[in-house]
């Protein structure tokens, strides 16, 4: 977890108690919006798209990404007959050894002491995986164990990676992948000119956690983010699950941890949750507006390929738009 200063949120956390499993309380009013959007984009490419359809999906922590991508994959698979693979960018974190090396090389930068921020992913591995998917070649899907090394995490052994697109070894729904959904909290974030980073850094009224870090450390993260943009450029469509108030991330994460304590007897405390989310919040403050404006580059030819869904405190949809 990130070792940072006090959180920006001054609101009291509220837990739903007693509560059914958290996933059953997250309203799936998003897939009825996403499925028609996805199918319309696939239809546009049906006669011209020579490779599997790649969807990027961004959602703040706790907004219900897991519930949504599960519903999307099941619907596309079972109703539309499209073998669909859901991939989390979390599975492409650096190995434990490489993360320790990154942290040591940047020992005064709190943003890269632990996994999460741009720069803590194995982009060559992700690029190689996507290249295999796009060319419909056999490959293996990496897996990451967040509980390894007392929660610091590590990549699982390659022998545990499930085979994909292998006609003999892959399970049936992992053969001939036609749709891939790449989901993650930073998926689609675009780097900013250094002058914009500096401007946001000095805007203490509207950007509350940026001042918790040195400007040079934020610029380092921004530079690392540039390396991700070749991946984002592979997307054929994009779905953005936004929140009316980003500070709800603190409350949503606490609800997840309380549910984990009820189910497994372990989970982060309120103070630990604050510090954990604080580690990600600078990136939200820097890059979320860019996602709202649209992640695609290319002008008029790329219009209409992004669906933005905005949710309220209960994670229910309050508005949506195609941009």
Structural class: alpha/beta
Report the CATH architecture: 3-Layer(aba) Sandwich
CATH superfamily label: P-loop containing nucleotide triphosphate hydrolases
Query: Low-confidence parts lasting 5 or more residues at pLDDT below 50?
Result: 1-25
Beta-strand residue fraction: 5-15%
Shape: globular
Order of helices and strands: HHEHEHHEEEEEHHHEHHHEE
Number of domains: 1
Give the proportion of residues in helices: 25-40%
Enumerate how many helices there are, as a single number: 11
Q: Could you describe the 3D structure shown?
A:
The chain is of the alpha/beta class. It has a single domain, classed as P-loop containing nucleotide triphosphate hydrolases (Rossmann fold), CATH 3.40.50.300. It has helices at 22-25, 31-45, 65-78, 96-105, 123-134, 194-202, 215-225, 229-232, 248-264, 270-278, 281-293; strands at residues 53-59, 84-88, 139-140, 144-145, 154-155, 163-164, 179-184, 237-243, 306-311, 317-322. The strands form three sheets. Strands 2-7-1-8-9-10 form a six-stranded mixed β-sheet, with helices on one face. It has a two-stranded antiparallel sheet with strand order 3-6. Strands 4-5 form a two-stranded antiparallel ribbon. A hairpin with a 5-residue loop joins strand 9 (306-311) and strand 10 (317-322). The two termini are 35 Å apart. The model is unreliable at 1-25 (pLDDT under 50).
List the helices and strands and how they pair.
Blueprint: H1 22-25, H2 31-45, E1 53-59, H3 65-78, E2 84-88, H4 96-105, H5 123-134, E3 139-140, E4 144-145, E5 154-155, E6 163-164, E7 179-184, H6 194-202, H7 215-225, H8 229-232, E8 237-243, H9 248-264, H10 270-278, H11 281-293, E9 306-311, E10 317-322
Parallel strand pairs: 1-7, 1-8, 2-7, 8-9
Antiparallel strand pairs: 3-6, 4-5, 9-10
